[in-house]
Design a protein that fits this description.
By secondary structure, the protein is mostly helical. The protein has two domains: 75 residues, Helix Hairpins, CATH 1.10.287; 49 residues. The chain contains five helices and no strands. The relative contact order is 0.09.
Length: 125
């Protein structure tokens, strides 16, 4: 398998190959539980002050598990992430515009102000 593939696509191909020989869950729910397990492991590394290599390792496991969940749900992970990126960009621009109309900017605004505007933009979507 080409190592030059984008990581999300390669993860999905690796998982499909493993599934062909029976190394796969039969449905999405156990995969969701695996995602939750990986989140817990990442949280443990973060709260225990794990070194950057351990945190990166757990983050990779979480991303791999998320791709597997997407595959089980029939969702193309690359497309879903592309859509999420677009949604984030649109909402963030709206937060910037709202701040501008208030005579402020993202540089001047507090996280709480931006988060409140984010929630407002999300509600209005």
């Amino acid at each position: 398998m080409a190592k030059g593939l984008p990581a999300l696509i390669r993860a999905e191909k690796l998982q499909k190959r493993a599934a062909k020989v029976g190394f796969d869950w039969p449905e999405a729910l156990p995969v969701l539980l695996k995602v939750k397990e990986e989140i817990a492991e990442l949280e443990q590394e973060i709260t225990q002050g794990g070194d950057q290599d351990r945190v990166a390792d757990e983050m990779g496991d979480l991303l791999f598990s998320c791709v597997n969940l997407a595959r089980h749900l029939g969702v193309d992970a690359e497309s879903a992430l592309r859509e999420a990126n677009g949604k984030f960009e649109k909402r963030f621009r709206q937060v910037e515009q709202k701040l501008h109309r208030q005579g402020s900017s993202v540089v001047e605004a507090s996280l709480e102000e931006m988060d409140s505007l984010w929630d407002e933009v999300k509600r209005d979507a």
